[in-house]
Amino acid sequence: MIPAFGLNVPTQILFGPGKLNDLAEIATRFGRRPLLVLGSRSFAATGHYRALLASFENLGVLPQIVHIGTEPSPQMIDQIVADTPATAKDMVIAIGGGSAVDAGKALAAMLVERGSVSRFLEGVGTETPSGRKLPFIAIPTTSGTGSEATGNAVISSVGANGFKRSLRHEHYIPNIALIDPVLALSCPRELTVACSMDCFTQLVEGYLSDRASRLTDTLALDGVRAVYRSLEAVCRDGGNLAARTDMAYGALLSGVVLTNAGLGTVHGFASAIGGFFAVPHGVICGTLMAAANSMTIKNLRQTGVNAQALEKYARLGQACSRAADKSESWYQDFFIAELERFTDQLHIPALDQFGIGRDDIDKIVRQTSNKNNPALLSQGELTEILLARLRP
Ligand SMILES: [Fe+2]
C-alpha cells in the first residue's frame, strides 16, 4: 500500500526553451508594477533582457529594477525593502541564479511582513513568518539550487559569527516557476559544475531522506537520470541545449524534492561551512558528495539499521548504470565510484583551497546537522568525511 503523503509545489510550472517570451503577458495577471530582481549584470547585457523590456513596454508593465551582486544578507534585504516605492508592489519577479531568486523570494515576503528579515530567520530570529507575501515569479538562469520550487530563501552573513539561515514558509513557494533552459547557455563552466553538483546532491539526499514519499522518490529518480546523463556533457560544452535542458529539469525537480522530503548530511555541512567561509554552496556539495555517501553506505552496512536506505542506494546505482542483473551491493559500489569519478574528472576543488584547515574541523562538525540523513553519522565519521577533502 502506498503510504500517505502531501506535496507542495508552485501553483504553475512553465518549462522549456523560449518560455521567457511569455513572461510579460503572465506578469499582467498580477498587475503592471513589478519589482524586478536581477542577479549579476550578465543577464542585463543579453538580448533576452532587451526583448523582455520591449515586451513589458508593449503591455504597459513598468518594472522597478534592483540588482543582487552577492548572496543576500539581512542588511541587503532590509535596505531594498526600505527603498522600494509603494507603487512597485504588485508582484516580485526574480531572474538570475540562486542568490537572485532567494533575494526575490525574501523580498516578496518582507515587502508585506513588518520589521527586519533577521527577526524571522530560522535559528537567528524569534518570530514565525505569517506566510503573507506578494505574488512571486521565479526565473532561474542557472541550474542548481532549485529555489524556483522551494519554500525557503537562504540569507547569509559571512564572518566569525556568520550564518546561512532560511526564511521559510510553505506559502513562499513561488506562484510561478518559469524555467527557460536557454538562459543557462552562457553560464561559465566553473559555475555550471558547482550548480550541477548542488542539484545532483539535492536529488540524492532528498531521495534518501527519512521524510521521502512515493511521489518525491519518483521525481528524485527521474531527476537523477537526467542529471547523470548530461552532467559531463554540460560541463564539456555549455552551449549544448539538450544537456542544459536536462540540468534545468533536474534542478527544478531537486527543488520540489528538497522542499517536500528534506536534505542530508552534505547540506548539513554546507550550512555550517558556508557560514564560516566564503565557499560557493555548490562547491561544498560537489566536493563532499562522494565522501559523505561513501561513509553513509559504510555505516549502513556495519550497523544494519536501515535496509531500506541500502536498497535505495542500489536503485540510485541502477538509475545510472546500463548493467543489468547485478547484485544490490554492486549497484551501491557503482554509484559511489561514479561520484568519485565526477569529483576527479570535473576537478572539483578540495576544501583547503578555500583556506579551511584541520584546526577548523571541530567547529564545523559541531555545527553540522545529520537531519534526514539515512544514517546517524558520529562526530568521528563527520570528521573523516572532511579530512577526505583536505589535502595533507
Ligand atoms: Fe543545495
Question: How would you describe this protein?
Answer:
There is one protein chain. The strands form two sheets. This protein has a six-stranded parallel sheet, with helices on one face. A two-stranded antiparallel sheet has the order 6-7. It has helices at residues 23-27, 47-58, 74-83, 98-110, 189-208, 214-236, 241-261, 265-276, 281-303, 307-320, 328-345, 361-366, 379-388, and strands spanning 12-15, 34-38, 64-67, 91-96, 136-140, 152-157, 163-168, 176-179. It is globular and about 65 Å long. By secondary structure, it is of the alpha/beta class. It folds into two domains: 12-184, 3-Layer(aba) Sandwich (Rossmann fold); 189-388, Dehydroquinate synthase-like - alpha domain (Dehydroquinate synthase-like, alpha domain, Up-down Bundle). It contains 13 helices and eight strands. The termini are far apart. Helix content is 48%, strand content 10%. Fe (ii) ion binds next to α5 and α9.
